[in-house]
Amino acid sequence: MTSLLIAIDGPAASGKGTLARRLADYYHLPHLDTGLTYRAVAWDLLRNGQSLDDEASAIEAGRHVDLSNLDKHALSAHGVGEAASRVAVIPELRRILVDKQRDFARQPGGAVLDGRDIGTVVAPEADVKLYITASPEVRAQRRLRDIEGRGGSADVSEILADIRRRDERDMGRADSPLKPAADAHLLDTSDMSIEAAFRAARAIVDGML
Ligand code: C5P
């Protein structure tokens, strides 16, 4: 196969981001974390003191999102993911960001994109679709370890409540809800190490080549 497009979807803290990066490295493909595009919009509104419900400003911010200049550090800040899921319900904003994501997906040679609607909306033509899940409890524990690993502290029950709220919003919205594409391979990583999940994902991709 001269070109390989891999679509990865899944809920918050499922491990899809880590898997996407590892697969992109392994297959020498460019990678786009599409969550960063929604985070960039939310961050723009927060930074300028604008409301997350201000659709016109969110749409304007969406037009200015530059895929080659996404500040991963600022965008990973606490609260930005939650804010991103609030602006991500705006259909006109989604259309603008999805267009940019599709341009990225169309590069010669292929790409790896991860998000919530890659296999269903952004790149339904993808060669391989993975849907990564893990139980909310396991995802909360992983997020806690991440935070602690960076020297922070947090309450696991608050993280769990956050994760459940985000799942509900992402799976329940009318436009492009989070769900596996009909032809996605499901990978439940609840009882898997990152290494084991990576091996399983690679086996699925290799099986499609
Ligand atoms: O993946 P991440 O947690 O960074 O995404 C932040 C939020 O952006 C998600 O909770 C979701 O609401 C939104 N998002 C989306 N579609 C994508 C990627 C992210 O709606 N493809």
Please describe what this structure looks like.
This protein has 209 residues and is of the alpha/beta class. The chain folds into 2 domains: 1-30 and 110-209, P-loop containing nucleotide triphosphate hydrolases (Rossmann fold, 3-Layer(aba) Sandwich), CATH 3.40.50.300; 33-106, no CATH class. The protein is 54% helix and 12% strand. It has helices at residues 16-27, 35-47, 55-63, 72-75, 80-87, 91-105, 118-122, 136-149, 156-172, 194-208, and strands at 4-9, 31-33, 110-115, 128-133, 185-188. It has a 5-stranded parallel beta sheet with strand order 2-3-1-4-5, sandwiched between helices. Helix 1 (16-27) packs across helix 10 and helix 2 (35-47) packs across helix 3 (55-63). The N and C termini lie close together (6 Å). The structure holds cytidine-5'-monophosphate. Cytidine-5'-monophosphate (C5P) is lined by residues 12, 34-35, 38-39, 81, 84-85, 88, 115-117, 166, 170.
